[in-house]
Records
---
Amino acid sequence: MPNPLRLFYMAVWRNILTLTRYKANFIFEILTSVLFGFGMLILAVAFDTNLLGNMIGSTNYVAFIILGISYQSWQGIALWEAANMFRNELNTGQIDYTFTCPFSRYFYIVCNIAASAVQSTIFFLPLFCVGLYFTMETVTPLGLLLGLSATLISVAALAQLGAIFASLVLRYREVTAIFGFFNFAFQMLTGMFVPFQLLPLPLQIIGYCLPITFGMDLMRHYLMKTIPIMPVTYEWIVLLVELVVLALIAKLAVLYLEKTAKEQGLHYL
Amino acid sequence: MNAAIVCRDIVKVYNSRKKKVVALNGLNLTVKEGEVFGLLGPNGAGKTTLVRILTTLLKATEGYATVGGYDVDKEESKVREIIGYAGQDSERSAYFRLTVRENLLYFAHTLRDVPRDVAERRIEEIAEAAGFTDRLDRHFIALSGGEKQLVIVMRAILHNPQICFLDEPSKSLDPITARRVRSFLKDYARDHGMTICLTTHNMLEAEDVCDRLALINLGKLRFIGAPSEFKRRVIIKETIEIGVNNIPKPVEDDLLALPGVSKVTHGTVVRLYCDDAFSILPDVVKVMKRAGLRAPVRMVEPSLEDAFAFFVKNGLDEVKEDA
């Protein structure tokens, strides 16, 4: 019978080998932990409703958080669904068949993200409705329409980042910790759970570059009547520009990374 | 007859930080339209690498290849339109929670652009030809390994490709299912004029299905031709088989003393390799009688497996294919 102690230390050995074999993933694993600690500090400050009122013009913390969580589920799908799909296809070998089929890789990724976003919407709809219930005093039909439109554009822009991450899977194999890092960074730097205005300026600058920031800010503005971080028109323009620019970058990245992956072969991943 | 696949001076080098592996080293070959072509070779010979290059999954380091007249590097989307593919170890490469029918419909209609009604009809036709109709509505996860592999082969030809690449299609199949798949592929290729390029380690499959074979080793072409030619090429000696697994040393010496006998091997049967089996057969029987051994003695045609084993052990020089 195997020695239990050996079972334990060999399991540790195996895990450490796996963890350190993919260097980038290992580094991001550590960075995520640092970022998480920092995020918790900000979250503690944000629980002060007076501070929240001063920052965003609303003390409706419940709606603020629920809408943030709803947004998070869309963000998760947009950013990681395609990457997870590719990882799964790599594990089962399906990617070989997929990549011998005649279609645009970019649209394959984006369409799969969209399909999952629809599926995800069905499941998180009750939560979103609860969020809406808490905004009953401020929400209007037009506000709801505009808020959802901003969300749609920002999720579409995020899906472009998702396409880039999916292509990274083709090239760099194990990227789960990198995902984890960006996932948490996106949540902390875009005002998902803590007001964007609370962030230090250098972090706000990073947040301005992420499409979630304006999508979520516009949704909260239209649903909760919060003070937007920029004039509303500017936010719409930035959101649309981000969508176009990210779509272009994503198309090029998918092409480039598929080409690079082909040098070594997808089965090497 | 036109060429379905052309490879010219294909080189593939895998570069990693620690080492450089030359998988293909200046390979040339041509597959004719409508033929079933087998790629044979020991493990690591470069068969799968070649199939991956031809199916646009991998880029050759040097040389060029065309599939259906299209350059696999410059016209990859054209190549993808006319090929089918079933990869090695791909029996998990479908959606486990969908039925076989749903899986096939998804792949054909979504990824291969086959109209839905045509795809549905084709699924029925192919399942019937493969003897799989009764399992079309079972979940993929509930199938056995061999059945899953058969579904993957069905998926490869569902959109009626001009050229189909199958990487070890019968690897995990039991002999009966493997025979059914072979007969299905052979009939399908003949009836639809489809070119099939398959890699295999199964010599029975190669002999049974393939019109021609290419033998690859260390990234080079060692033989190309019909299975019968291959056997003639590598088995230079004729063979007599004695139905015992061992013979005493003096008897072996007497057999080796017969004219033209070069080697005696022991195994499940005893084999004599000689120049003219027909002439010495009576002498072999005499030697056996003299030693008081009663066992069946017969001349045997060398199998493709014998030829392959001979090839792996002794090797063959690189051959140049006529362009």
---
Amino acid sequence: MAYAFFGGVHPHDMKAATNAKAIQQLPPPAEVVIPMSMHFGAPCTPLVKVGDEVKVGQKIGEFRGLGAPIHASVSGKVKAVEPRPYSMGGNMMAVVIENDFQDTLSEEVQAPADPDALSVEEMIEAVKNAGIVGMGGATFPTHVKISGGIGKVDTVIINGAECEPYITGDHRTLLERTEEFIGGCKYLAKMFGVDKVVIGIEVNKQDAINKLNETIAKTQAPVAVEPLRCRYPQGGEKQLCQAVTGKQVPPGALPANIGCAVFNVNTTCAIYRAIAKGMPVVSKVVTVSGSGVIEPKNLECPIGTPVSCLFDECGGLKDNTYKIIAGGPMMGMAQYTCDIPVGKGTGSMLAFADKEEQTVANPQCIRCGKCVAACPMHLEPLFMYQYAEKGMVDELNEAHIMDCMECGACAYACPARMHLTHMFKTGKQLVKDKMAADKAAAEAKKAAEEKKEAVAK
Amino acid sequence: MTDYKKLNLIATSSPHIRGSETTRSIMLDVIIAMIPALIFGCFNFGMRALLLTGVSVIGCVFFEWLYRKLMKKPQSVGDLSAVVTGMLLALTCPVTVEYWQILIGDFFAIIFVKQLFGGIGKNFINPALGGRAALVASYAGSMTKWIDPAANKAAVLGSNVDVITAATPMAYLKGGDIEGLKAAYSVTDVFMGTIGGSMGEVSAIALLLGGAYLIWRKVINWQTPVAYIGTVAVLSFLFPKAGSGIEWMLYSVFGGGLMLGAIFMATDYATSPVTKKGQVIYGIGCGLLTVFIRYFGALNEGVCYSIMVMNCCTALIDKYTKPTRFGVVKSDKKEAAK
């Protein structure tokens, strides 16, 4: 068993609803809505206009600065290029494509003659052109992570923890697409120049661990399986690094600083498809589950599929459904509409109809300290809450609120049902605003002094 | 198929699921954990113990309800914390205390110690101990009248004039009279609880049972009670006033209010540190003060005041026992200091 991380909680994993169900292909949707922001960084610029014919894998969005390109996920005609609701809240410029159900592959998609002969630079270029981002939900552009990590990284970790309840997409991918996954691991090992990549899997996925061990033994693949205890947030990047290597990522630093790079299971599969087949990211495995869903399933669908199509495929929703969540129940975003599309980081769509919420009218902190014991970042949520409530920005900063990754473990553990995570989201914004204001004030002061000096001269 | 436009969706911040524990369930666990001690109190001192506890609980709940009502604040009696305070306060009183006296203690505990500071979680000393301290200061006579349980069981249900009193083990220990203590009570008596004392403090075994339940249910951490009881045990073993260290230690640990204090009072969330490291320091502090008061103070027993003093140190302990920030390793810190 691997090292442990401090803190965390152990929610009921709720995975039994879908963990034995094979990934199904969703019947092609009539139209897809592809938002121009499915990555960490500035939104893409649309490359197509209304009326254009597009083919599967054709680039339709180009990124600037930090980001990843976006590709058409179905073939057909561009119906609209306009802002549409998307899973991060509010509206985002989106390309709406009417499906012609032909699935014509774009000429841009070209498999290399010999993928194994590619140089590291060519492989990174292939990853970049395929528009791969971290598919666990953080959506950080993968080519940036790889090129930034080469030379620094000695431990490549695949995140198979899947510690959020309900989600089983990575679990099923590991079971059903083992060869593809191992292929991706080989390319990662080659790019980083390491002997082995380590995959951390929580022990509630024993069948996947067995399957991987068999395949690794058979193919002599450069992969090592590290079983992890079930503990949320085991799949947090920093927690996973700690669990696998025993080292902690310093505050404000990246895993690369301690020689680690972490990739999601589905990202690894996408890397394989990009390098071996030249295929960009056009589809996503989504777990549709929760008490509001009639028949929970694991579905693979084109990027941009409206989530209502996913729910329809699962028999619809119960009438008393009160919450739709894009992502897991601990960190996912609650949605105010079902008109949102599946993005590159959408690992699950949950619908709740039971009493999952369990809020109380007047939450009162009882100082039990359970949040302190639960915080995987070693913070003291109860004091941070008080500071944020009173707008004490300096104290918030001293309490290291910016280390908070909003994992929700404290709020989950809180018997008083305080809205801790919510308060920290606003608290972090307060700190950011203050920092920006301080910076602006300092610059203004400097400018004024310079002006004064100039006048004096 | 479902009409997705008709769903009444709510959008709130994550997390969207919560653990099963609530303030109420925690308070209920504390109540359950006190029941063995209460049952033993009734067995030892008669049914008046149960009546007093009942009156105290009703008093606390009533005062809490009344204050919240008069001040037009959200009602909070549902969280059962007032019930816990009422039970704890009763358990720290002798069985001969008057009903109206215990109600004054309830009033002080709930209104002055708890609600005036903002209610649950905001008070800086334990309400039950605060109420008890007020009673000891006001009615020292009735609060130190310890009846002999063997002589007059059940006789005290109504009046309390003609009861036969007896010295508690703490009184013998104060005088260093270990021979007299051994003649009066055996170690087994003290451990089982067939001795004089407060209604809930006498039976170490019943209290340990409750403590084990609380630790098993993860309501309290083991750090505070173990550090507290351990400190008292070690000091009394090393520095017996009379007799052998082991005997002196056993009487010191089981004879007074230490078990009740360490398990139910010192572990009060609102008034104890939030980190495990802080809880150890706090427990050791309670232990030291208890032994100092017992050895050098004017009082026979020091549990109540030592916990109250340490309650006041909690903010300080919290300040200096903050967890090490994630990613900052101790060796790095030392290097940075160089």
---
Amino acid sequence: MTKAHQRPTRFVYQLIAAVLMFLAMFAVAMLIGAAETTAKDVWLALTSRASGDKITLIREIRLPREIAAIFVGAALAIAGAIMQGMTRNPLADPGLLGLTAGANAALALTLALIPAADYYSIMLACFAGAAVGAFMVFGIGAMKKGGFSPLRIVLAGVAVSTLLYAIAEGIGLAFKISKDVSMWTAGGMIGTTWAQLQVVIPVIVIGTLIALFFARQLTILSLSEEVAVGLGQKTTQIKIILFIVIILLTGASVALVGNMTFIGLMIPHMVRALVGTDYRFILPMSAIVGASFMLFADTLGRIINAPYETPVSAIVTMLGLPFFLLIVRKGGKAFS
Amino acid sequence: MARLYTNDLSIGYGEQLIVKELSIKIPDKKITTIIGSNGCGKSTLLKAITRIIAPQSGTVILDGENISKENTKLLAKKMAILPQTPESASGLTVGELVSYGRFPYQNGFGRLTKRDYEAIDWALEVTGTIDYKYRPVDALSGGQRQRVWIAMAVAQETDIIFLDEPTTYLDMAHQLEVLELLQRLNTEQGRTVVMVLHDLNQAARFADYIIALKDGEIVKAGNCEEVIHYDVLKKVFHIDAEIGRDPRTNKPMCVTYNLIKGE
């Protein structure tokens, strides 16, 4: 039984390494920015109540932005991992399967109808929109036998997403709020405030905790539906819970930063190469790697064409697309 | 009295019934085989008996309880299922995969107890897969992999094991290996084995009880002498079969056959 215990032990080391990488990435993200800041400023901003221009800048602009990157990266990576496990579809990703587009359309609709909507209502609208997007994509899949094949679902996702983005733009034009909508959805963490974080972070934390609690059930489900039933899993119940978790994580992310595709696709695949197929390991690792990756992408976006910012969604897509193609080519087996 | 039986079980989608008012008894501690042509409803029947799909009407009774109303985890301690060609468990080792057989006995985060480890090792031992325990499932041959999946079902420690075409995609030697393993589980441990098989002669050789289906209805259910019979095979498969005897087991076997033309 020696080796049966080895995987958890190895995982602990991997987790420590990942956390160290994450902390390093966080430090880099905090140190680099448009304004010249020193390590001392960052340290004071984080640990003391000292004030000063630079310290305030770090505390009120840079820190919330990086915190947003951390939580969104983690949330989308976990959401993607759950979707891949649940649907046994290696191409599953909240961005590819219509969830972010749905949340986006709901966001536009809310801004149009209730201009004074508070942040909380906007997030709720994003949950509803993400759910509608997912139902549309899987509804199209369910119309045809074999419609749930990975590529078919992705095609349905593209079609539904295009429609939903068009709706969002239509609403933006009709109500003359295009600028407001695109400010939300351009996919950036610019302008994230502490007030927003206070609303969104609890949702992401709760979603993550539920996900971790059901990680083992997800592993069983990812083997095969029939195997899961045979082992005594209440599959319908588990799928509903996991679906709600996906909606919470995706909706909260869109409410915070807008559209972000490929994180949920990429990160779990990378993580599986490291930790195997047990979701008790995949989910926490995805959270950490996803958070680090978002910090990296955001930092890259700030320095690649400084002093101008490159939208982080563009950076993520540039990195994610080749990855997507690789997974398609390898039939979902890439890195795992 | 059989522990497991069905009452007027009908299974299907919408108007179209795949299995029609089927009442069967699964004999305890015996090997039961379901045979029939493609699309006759054998797999569907197996799925309904194992609660993977819900019947349109009728009931499946295990130990006096309707399984659709029974706690599914409790059922998982009584019956194990090996679906047709389970997806490959990429990235898992044999030991890890087999450990999922202990799922019905766990709660919460699923820490394995000493008892669980014993059951896992024992299942690996019985199925002759203990040597692969630390190997990835992907690295095994088809026959080995099938034995590992059976080991997972064995680790579930159920009285009844269901298998949907456990020999598909295996070569002749590996087919026999799997069937002999199931036979040992039956004779040495008294487990009830229920499986769908394609090969009539394998069914005759290994099964105590055979259920022959056609269009979702029973043509004949009984021992191999009764089922591997000219009239039954003619009805079930529409073939003109020459029934002989296996010179080694003396069981009936289909020596050769022709399609029945016309009609």
---
Amino acid sequence: MRSLVRLSAEGEGFVPPSSNDFNLPPIFGENAYTTKPIFMVFFSVILISVFFIAASRKAAIVPSKLQFAGESIYAFVRNDLARDVIGHEFMRFVPYLFTLFTFILTNNIFGIVPLLQFPAMSRVSFPYVLAVFTFVIFHYVGIRKQGLGKYLKEIMFMPGVPKPVYILLTPIELATFFLVRPLTLSLRLFANMFAGHLLLLVFIMGGDHLLKGVIGLKLVSPFAFAFGIGLTFFEFMVQCLQAYIFTLLTALYIAGALADEH
Amino acid sequence: MKREENALWSIFGYLLSGLLFWGGVGWGLDSWLGTSYLLLLGLLVGMGASLYLVWLRFGRE
Amino acid sequence: MTGTLNLVGYGLSAIGPAIATGMIFAAYISGVARQPEARSVLQPIAFLGFALAEALALFGLVLAFVL
């Protein structure tokens, strides 16, 4: 594929986007802590805080547009995610779920905002940290609610199975609860953001490269750009969906840890 | 709807961890004993066990 | 461009489970839409079918990495 492009286009060969495009250089200094994703994460925190403080400061019976927007997001997380899933103890977990949802959503949408255009969650460390928070919280809640022994016993021993089969099943249950759940939670978010950003890079950079080619290729490149723009809207959908799924699964895990019976 | 989403992702997690754990055990035994068939055996055992677990948790009334 | 053919094989082998999952849930949705009270009967069947199809996909994924 690369050689084909090189034959048909003038200038240097097309370099397909790869995972190297995600290793951004530090903005100043020589350390690894001043890269663009770090600043974007801090910026997102400031943005979320300013938005919700502004939305809730002048709370009125007849809400302004800003207040309505803030309250819609809050009501969505509280009613549709926390209350429907967790049940009567849901108010304790609304702050965490709300923070998680807005943080992931804002950082994902940064992936398609012009000038920023990099989803911080496509660096795998950020989803790992969020998954570790969720992991600690849902195990802590389960242990506090049921006691350590009973909680572990409920995870490890499925009722209604002959005793020797536990040798097969107990490791699988333990691996699911302590390894696969946080891992899939973080990797799902990471992989979606990574693949989506890579897809946009392929179309935009490919269209740019075609524009530099001979006249026949110049005619093709608008189609690549149009596809890139269409996929940007598709990406917006995926980004909202991934923030929703991460929060929903966190709520479901907390609900599973709180429930007495499986 | 949300319960179904939960069930689907837990099924996925069970199958993945069954394959990973028992496949890992088979792989470890293979490199310890110098054989080559225990990895496949471990993967099959893991898949069977996780399918059984899925049946226990979601398949019966 | 370098890579391994295993991943191409995995991509091909994931087509089957993908179609199977789609068909299972299409049938489940139309069954529940026609007869909403049959949901509790259909749900375990749909989940088991999904588990069987998904097991093949995951088997392909693991074999793509270990072979």
